[in-house]
Amino acid sequence: MLTFPFVLALLPLACNLFTPVRADKAEIGAACEYAAVHLDVTTYALVTGCVPSAYCSSDNICVARTCRRDEFPYGYAEDAVLPPRCEEGYVCPDEGSGCVAQVGPGETCQVDRDDECSKADDWSDLSSSRNVNGSICLNQACQYQNVTLNSTCQIENLVFIEYTTDGNPVSDIRSRDNCRRGGYCDGTSLTCLRTLNIGESCTADKECSSYNCNADKKCAVQAHSKVTPATWVYVIVALCIVLLIAGTFGTLWYFHKKSRAEHQIMLEQYYTEQVAYRQSLFHLSQTRDSLFSLHKSSNQDSARQTLLVHSSEDDGSSPRDQNDR
Q: Quick one: signal sequence residues (predicted)?
C-alpha cells in the first residue's frame, strides 16, 4: 500500500513527465551542431537547430540567412529587413546560405527541390504541375520528366506524416516519377503507362490524369476543381426563387386583404353604432322640444282644458258633458 509521504515524493517526477519539453532555437551568433543538421522525417523540412532566420554553418555557428525562397518567409518580424530572392537561373537552397546556380540532369539536388534543376530546352512541352519547367528532382538527382510510354522509368516515394483531428498520425505516400505528361511509372514493372481517365479503376493517385483516386478506387475529378452544375440545376434554382418570391408576395397580399376586411367590418360596426346613437339623441331632442313647446303662450287652465279635450276625445264625450257631471 502506498503511503502518503511516498506519494508526495512521486509528485515532482509526475510533474516533469507531463511538462512539455521546450525546444529552444539558437539565435544568430550562437553555437549550433552542424553534424546534427537533418531533414524532418515527417515533413522533410531542414532542421538546423537555429532560429528560422538563420542556419547552422560548417563552423557550428548560427548565421543569418542571405537569401530566401518565399515572398513572405517564416520566422521574421514584420519590420525586419528580408534577405533578397535569387535571380533567374539561381535558387536559394534550404539553408538560405546564398544563391546558387541551377544544375543540369544527373547532378545533385535537395529533396523535393525541382526548382534547383535547370529547365529543359523543350520545357514548354514538358512543363506540368508535377515538375518545374519540365525538370524534376528525383532521388536527389535532377532529371527531365520526358520518359515516353512503355519506356523504363524511375520512381521516388516520399512518406509524409499527417495528423487527424484526433491527433492520430496518418501516412501519406507521394509517388513521383520521370514519365512524360500523360503517363505514370508503374511501381512493379518500372515502365511508363498511360494515365487513367475519370471513372477508370485505379490503385493510387498518380495513376489518374486528375491525380485523384477516390475511396472507391475510381479516378475522380481533381480535389480542387470547381464544380459546374448542369443547366437543369440553374433552371430549378431559378424556378424555386421565382416561386419563393411569388409565394411571399401572395402570402403578404392574403394577410393584408384579410386584415383590411376585418378593419372594414369594425369601421362599419362603429359607424352603424354612431348613426344609431345619433338618431336616438335626435329623437330624444325632438321629444323634449315637443313637450316644452306645448302651448307655452296659454295659461294653466287652458293647458288643463286642452288635456280634458284630449281625454274626452279618448272616451267619446264633450267637455261640456264632463262639466255637467
A: 1-23
